[in-house]
């Protein structure tokens, strides 16, 4: 027993290391009652200087080169859960806050409508100066619809 | 008692080895064969995180090409599923696309394609 146990433990440790890593709880798609949202984040330093927007005279949310080096471009695509149609004319507000506290310390900005690669998305820059987990809360408004719906994401900045 | 303990440990160990073998086999067959959309989505998300964290521009270019290849493979697999079953093309919003996992994978790839087009 004493001779066999270390062998068992060593092999179990090897198996454990080669097993797939469990998925984190960071979320890239979330759903409210009426909407399904998909989140994409790109560091500002990786963006081209002038990507295409809905309004071709306008720079991407004021200009990527105006942002701090730690800024991230946060963008979402939105769909209705009722019929899977894409939201083309939503108004979206996003609040980004470290650690998901939502204690009023977050930054809230509108997500501007963008058409890139022929598809409608909504995005803006948010500074995420520290590594770690951030909470991103969307408020989604539609024309002729009363009120708004919330969707919350967790995002980990490395 | 000693013999019973050894037998119990041997059974547990055997079960772990068997499970690992199944997991490795499943991973080895993706994405060319049948894919699990949920698993493939997670793989692509993990690859995306590696891509945006890569500081070296040349390595990042390689990762971008890898990511585009993963997207092509994923799209092919989704298209194959869409045309499978009856052998006839499924309607765009038919039962196949109602599958949330497939929808999520399709929409994630669309979003990643948009982000790649915005990147240097």
* Bulk shape of chain B: flat
Main sheet characteristics of chain B: none
List the helices and strands of chain A in order.
Answer: HEEEEEEEE
- Strand content bin of chain B: under 5%
Which parts of chain B are unreliable, with pLDDT below 50 for 5 consecutive residues or more?
19-32, 86-93
Description:
The complex is a heterodimer of chains A (158) and B (120). Chain A is mainly beta and 158 residues long. Helices cover 9% and strands 43% of the residues of chain A. Chain A is built from 1 helix and 8 strands, in the order αββββββββ. Chain A has an 8-stranded antiparallel beta sheet, with no helix packed on it. In chain A, a hairpin with a 2-residue loop joins strand 5 (107-116) and strand 6. The longest helix of chain A has 15 residues, at 4-18. Chain A is globular and about 75 Å long. Mean pLDDT of chain A is 82; it is low at 13-24. Chain B has 120 residues and is mainly alpha-helical. Helix content of chain B is 79%, strand content 0%. Chain B has 5 helices and no strands. Chain B has helices at 2-29, 37-53, 57-83, 95-98, 100-118. In chain B, helix 2 runs antiparallel to helix 3 (57-83) and helix 2 (37-53) packs parallel to helix 5 (100-118). The radius of gyration of chain B is 20 Å and the shape is flat. In chain B, 18% of the residues are buried. The model of chain B is unreliable at 19-32 and 86-93 (pLDDT under 50). At the A-B interface, helix 1, strand 2 and strand 3 of A face helix 1, helix 2 and helix 5 of B.
């Amino acid at each position: 027993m004493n001779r066999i146990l270390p062998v068992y433990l060593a092999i179990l440790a090897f198996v454990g290391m080669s097993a797939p890593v469990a998925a984190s709880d960071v979320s890239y798609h979330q759903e409210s009652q009426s909407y399904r949202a998909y989140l994409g984040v790109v560091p500002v330093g990786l963006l081209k200087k002038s990507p295409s927007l809905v309004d071709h005279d306008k720079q991407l949310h004021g200009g990527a080169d105006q942002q701090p080096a730690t800024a991230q471009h946060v963008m979402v695509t939105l769909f209705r859960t009722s019929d899977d149609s894409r939201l083309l004319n939503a108004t979206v507000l996003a609040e980004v806050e470290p650690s998901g506290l939502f204690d009023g310390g977050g930054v809230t900005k509108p997500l501007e409508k963008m058409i890139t690669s022929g598809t409608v998305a909504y995005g803006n820059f948010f500074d995420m100066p520290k590594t770690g987990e951030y909470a991103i809360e969307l408020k989604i408004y539609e024309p002729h619809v009363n009120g708004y719906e919330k969707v919350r994401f967790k995002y980990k900045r490395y | 008692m000693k013999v019973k303990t050894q037998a119990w440990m041997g059974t547990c160990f055997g079960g772990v080895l068997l499970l690992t073998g199944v997991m490795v086999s499943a991973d080895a067959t993706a994405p060319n064969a049948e894919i699990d959309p949920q698993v493939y989505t997670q793989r692509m998300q993990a690859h995306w995180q590696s891509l945006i964290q890569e500081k070296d521009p040349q390595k990042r270019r390689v990762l971008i090409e890898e990511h585009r290849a993963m997207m092509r493979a994923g799209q092919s697999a989704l298209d194959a599923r869409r045309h499978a079953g009856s052998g006839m093309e499924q309607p765009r919003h038919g039962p196949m696309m109602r599958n949330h996992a497939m929808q999520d994978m399709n929409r994630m790839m669309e979003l990643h394609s948009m982000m790649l087009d915005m990147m240097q």
